[in-house]
Known about the structure:
Elements: H1 2-25, E1 30-31, E2 34-35, H2 54-59, H3 80-96, E3 106-107, H4 116-123, E4 132-138, H5 148-159, E5 165-168, E6 181-185, E7 187-191, E8 206-210, E9 214-220, E10 231-240, E11 245-250, E12 255-260, E13 268-276, E14 278-284, E15 290-297, E16 302-308, H6 322-331, E17 336-340, H7 354-370, E18 375-380, E19 385-388, E20 391-394, H8 396-412, E21 415-418, H9 419-422, H10 428-434, H11 447-475
Parallel strand pairs: 4-16, 4-17, 17-18, 18-21
Antiparallel strand pairs: 1-2, 3-21, 5-15, 6-9, 7-8, 8-15, 9-14, 10-13, 10-15, 11-12, 11-14, 19-20
Helix pairs in contact: 3-11, 5-11, 7-8
Amino acid sequence: MTGDNHFGRLLFILTIAWIAGAGLYWLPDxxxxxxxxxxxxxxxxxxxxxxxxxxxxLSSPLPAALFVPxxxxxxxxxxxxxVRRDSLYHSLLAGMETDTAGVHIRDFSAGHTGLxxxxxxxxxxxxxxxxxxxxxLGDSFIEGxxxxxxxxxxxxxxxxxxxxxxxPIASNVEQYRPTIRQQSKGxxxxxxxxxxxxxxxVLSGLSxxxxxxxxxxxxxxxxxxxxxxxxxxxxxxxxxxxxxxxxLICNGTRDTIRTVLPAxxxxxxxEVRGRFTDGxxxxxxxxxxxxxxxxLEDSTGVAVDNFSLRGNTGVVWANLNENTCRAWxxxxxxxxxxxxxxxxxxxxxxxxxxxxxxxxxxxxxxxRQCFPESDLLLLGVSDRSHYRDGAYRTMPSxxxxxxxxHRIAEQAGLPFWSVFHAMxxxxxxxxxxxxxxxxxxxxxxxxxxxxxxxxxxxxxLILEKELYDEVEEILD
Length: 476
């Protein structure tokens, strides 16, 4: 009996020790701001997916069956001019290599013409009767105008223009966004991520319906970035209206407009021109009114719209309604659409992104159908770190995802720019966190980090434009 008692105690102690040891494996990555080294009782026998080589992931081939070549790229072998353009481009780039730094745009289009329409518009600023417009599609990586604010400021400093561009009626980060101050009241929000009524949505992915007879939205410009303190064009964009009236008070109380909005079941805009620093739209008899947002911009220069949508993987755009987008394109045509996604796709230990490859390819095709006059630029996913064996390092699944995005761009004939390499490549996020350019989640940028990426992207676009202009000059 005594022996049985000792055995029971031993078993109890071993069980407690095992539970404690297992618990140490589930410790948080950090405690009180300090990294925590976890204890893994099965470390000698556990097979870890994160032992995959980063280099092997960057160079590993993907099944060709994942990709269906885009019809727009099938003619590349049929044109001697396109071959000549390719040759000239590479020759000029090779001659500039010693004088340039940073990450280049890899243009997989035939003849390096993937950004032709965008560059041509930049060269014609002042004769377009509108600003050159850029749409930035993304997730929480650019939320609150991180990265986009600095990119917009750099583009406007170089090519002219004022204003923050498109602003949704309401936003869950409106109190943190430094490029505009806004408030709204009386609206119900719909999101394309809900998976219903896709025909209501365009690139913002949000729609706002008046909840009662009255609704309002107000704004005030900021001077946190150059070019934002005022704009010469103010627009209200709506998609449905029966009989709503509108009172607009601009610039304090100096300018007041009262009107009845035209009835519509399609996208329309109401525009006023002048000098705008603040304003308040108040809507009455608003039942049935559906709105998208307001716009602050100039009639020339560059306008950059931030269409960040938290939780978006990007594949939802394959469901865009072509007629709705064409109606949007009439009042708000884009010369360039930048596609930035990936943070909501990469998962720990996952390396097969076949589903994402198929979805992203459908998205690219749909964007080309809905916005046929816009160039597309695909951004490769940023670096992201996880905590392993006492240190933060690049999550291998992020590199596997980057590989898929790169191959999609290649097969679809898209220009591609690597955020991962702009951050310094492997373990770039570690350096960003150390410099306070990113948050302690080792995933999201700070505004300072956004400025670094924005500057690298701006430089890459300007270099690509200079190469394009030189090729055009030689061929003329």
